[in-house]
Design goal:
Layout: H1 4-33, H2 35-39, H3 50-74, H4 88-107, E1 117-120, E2 123-124, H5 129-135, E3 142-147, H6 164-172, E4 175-180, H7 187-204, E5 211-217, H8 219-234, E6 242-248, H9 256-268, H10 278-281, H11 286-290, E7 308-315, H12 323-329, H13 336-340, E8 357-361, H14 372-382
Parallel strand pairs: 3-4, 3-5, 5-6, 6-7, 7-8
Antiparallel strand pairs: 1-2, 1-4
Helix pairs in contact: 1-3, 6-14, 7-8
Length: 383
């Protein structure tokens, strides 16, 4: 299932893990050794020094030398072609890894780092008019772009026998395009790249594009909003063809679980002994940390006038649940108010009309991808 590139990436992560753990252990050791200086009101040294420092340095050096040697061996193994058949289990593993460590993978040039692409039928699209005309000779002028969520990939829109995009294709004649991206990168960076890819696709599409609709799940809704903000800033023409944005379980106002992770990181930093462990909290990727408040790294710009916004929220509770409990609980990850973009500050409220909202009961976050109720509502909204 894994090729030479995958093994090289895993080897790189193993070396990073060994050196990172060594750094953590040395930091705790140095914190303990620094107590006498703290009692005198002096700052402790950041490292252990002496023989302990040599020992920790030796561990890091051996790990790097061994890793580099193994990397040279693995470079000789065959790698998978970009258009080779994709194995769902491998794709799911790589997507999850990128969601958690995607920015680190990019910063270390790890072969496991994903590069954003637009895909159709599971294969990357080449933004060239002749190539697209040859590979997709019967393309239409209406594009439905599906954007997956954190730690997921384009293949995971297929939930058992159901696929929202395929049903909309059959019923409404859309051409379904998928964005496949590294969900560990910042939402703003992914939004800019998404906007660039959409413009390249519109420029190369074999027939003039008349309409673009975006259907996004979870983090994908924030990435889509960031792409729209990027297009507004640089005047990208593709935005004039966008008329619909539908978000499924998107944390427009943030996700409580990420805020809990940030709180834990802050608490760990209070004690001198636990402070070194704040590095573990920092392992959360930029994408995950952006979910703390639904951050787009811009001032939450309003959608263009021609874009109709729709939002679907889920609650694991039944319809008779108390409203406040339902809003707090949501789909297990995203509160209902966050999915609807409801905020007391008018500058942050998305002002999505009531008739553009759907609340699905007894459904979890991933259940939105397989919901027949959601599918029927999507048909009505996009028709």
């Amino acid at each position: 299932m894994l090729d030479g590139s995958d093994l090289r990436g895993a080897n790189g992560l193993l070396v990073d893990a060994v050196t990172g753990t060594t750094d953590l252990v040395e930091a705790v050791h140095a914190s303990i050794l620094g107590w006498p200086r703290r009692l005198l009101g002096l700052s402790p040294p950041p490292t252990t020094g002496g023989i302990p420092a040599l020992a920790y340095g030796a561990v890091r050096g051996i790990a790097r030398v061994a890793g580099n040697g193994l990397d040279r061996v693995l470079r000789g193994l065959p790698t998978r072609s970009g258009q080779a058949d994709r194995i769902p289990q491998r794709e799911a593993l790589i997507a999850a890894l990128n969601g958690v460590l995607g920015d680190h993978l990019v910063a270390t040039a790890n072969p496991l780092a994903l590069t954003a692409t637009l895909r159709m039928h599971g294969r990357a699209l080449v933004p060239d008019r002749d190539a697209l005309a040859a590979t997709h000779p019967k393309t239409g002028p209406r594009l439905l772009v599906l954007v997956h969520g954190l730690c997921m990939n384009d293949l995971q829109w297929q939930q058992g026998p159901h696929h929202h995009g395929n049903q909309l294709t059959e019923a409404l004649g859309f051409e379904v395009i998928h964005l496949h991206y590294n969900s560990g990168l910042s939402i703003a960076d992914n939004g800019r790249e998404f906007s660039r890819l959409l413009q390249a696709l519109v420029d190369a599409w074999p027939v003039p594009v008349q309409r673009i609709a975006i259907l996004a799940h979870s983090m994908g809704g924030l990435v889509s909003r960031a792409a729209i903000a990027s297009a507004q800033a640089d005047g990208s023409p593709w935005l004039h063809r966008l008329d619909t944005l539908v978000s499924l379980g998107t944390p427009h106002l943030g996700a409580p679980l990420e805020r809990a992770g940030a709180l834990l990181q802050t608490v760990l930093g209070v004690s001198a002994h636990s402070a070194p462990f704040t590095a573990l909290g920092g392992l959360r990727s930029a994408g995950i940390q952006d979910l703390r408040h639904g951050s787009l790294h811009v001032r939450h710009p309003p959608l263009p006038a021609q874009v109709r916004a729709f939002a679907v929220a889920a609650s694991t509770r039944g319809p008779r649940s108390h409203a406040s409990a339902r809003r707090l609980h949501g789909d297990g990850l995203v509160p209902v108010a966050s999915a609807f973009g409801e905020h007391t500050d008018p500058a942050r409220d998305l002002a999505i009309p009531e008739h553009h909202r759907l609340l699905v009961h007894r459904t979890g976050h991933l259940g939105l991808l397989a919901s027949a109720q959601v599918s029927r509502q999507l048909h009505d909204w996009l028709a």
